Each structure stands twice: as structure tokens, then as C-alpha cells.
Amino acid sequence: MVSATMLTVILGIVFASVGAVMFYLASPHQKLLAVAVPRRPLRALSILSLIGAGLLLVRIVGAGTAFFAVLTLLMALWSIAPIFVALIRYQRTHP
Fold first, then answer.
1. Which of 14, 39, 47, 94 is found 20 to 30 A from 58 (Cα to Cα)?
2. Tens of each residue's pLDDT in the chain, 95 residues
């Protein structure tokens, strides 16, 4: 059974991950989607999601730890995202 603390941490990670992906998709140089997406609403939702992740994690750990945990997750996802995008694009062109 999942405790409330663990559920809060999982929700914080999910919110931070969704925020990171939305922020990546709002970038003018993203290569995942072929069509242009509206950047301002996506950035606003991304920031709200990241703030929500921080607020969830602050309930479990301190403010500094929550802040750096969200930043670490952002760095990890933004480092991995271009690799996955390149892999997806390669698979589309080389079936």
C-alpha cells in the first residue's frame, strides 16, 4: 500500500516531469512536434506545474531540497529529451 508521503512525492515527480516536457515543447527549437504549438499558454502551464511540484515536495522535505530536486529533475529530462527526439525522428525516417 502506498502511504500519503510516497504519493505526494510521486505526484511531485509527475508534476515536475510534465512541466519539463511542456517547457521543452514550448521551446522554438523543439524537434518533437512538426506543428507549431502556442508557446505562451504552454509555458504558463509548465511554470504552474513546476510550482505545484515544488509545493508538493516542500510538504515532505525542506524548501531548498524541494527546489534543487525539481531543478535536478529538469536537468535530467532536458538532457535526455534530445536523445529521445533524435531516436524517434530516426525511426520515422528509417522504418
1. 39
2. 779 999 999 999 999 999 999 998 888 888 778 787 889 999 999 999 999 999 999 999 999 999 999 999 999 998 998 898 889 889 888 87
User: Which of 5, 1, 25 is CA-nearest to residue 78?
Assistant: 25
| Type of residue at 92 | R
d(CA 38, CA 21): 14
The rounded distance, in Å, linking the Cα atoms of 64 and 82 is: 28
Provide the CB-side half-sphere exposure for 19 (13 A, CA).
Answer: 22
Cα–Cα distances in angstroms (integers) from residue 22 to residues 3, 56, 64, 78, in the given order: 28, 19, 24, 11
**All 3 cell numbers of residue 44?**
504558463
Cell of 93: 525516417
Place of cell 521543452: 24
Helix (H, G, I), strand (E, B) or coil at 57: helix
38 phi/psi in degrees, rounded to 5: -65, 120
